[in-house]
Structure formats: C-alpha cells, structure tokens
Prior knowledge:
Largest sheet: 2 strands, antiparallel
Distance between the termini: 48 Å
Number of helices: 2
Number of strands: 2
Amino acid sequence: MADEIDLAQDREEIARVDAIRRATKPLEPGMPGECDLCGEWSGRLVRGACAPCRDKWRLP
C-alpha cells in the first residue's frame, strides 16, 4: 500500500512528464537521402539537410 509521499511523487512525475510533452515541438518528418548542403548520405533529412548541417548552419 502506497503512503502519501509515494502518491505525491507519482502525481509530481505525471505533471512533469505532461509539462515536458506540452513544451516540446513535434518533430518534422524526415526522409533518407543525400544532404543538399554537404552531399553526404543521411538516414534522416529535414528540408533536404542532415543533422550536422542543420546544426552547423543553425537551420530549423
């Protein structure tokens, strides 16, 4: 049987996970292929750019 502290921790965890889910943006769908910027093959391109190029050029 759970005591009051266990129940409070469970409610806090549920609230924290819910807040994180609401604060994050959904990921754009990606597709495999060659990056338009560097020409390297990537398993996931977003708007034609791989993750390293999106980070390097600060693309969305």
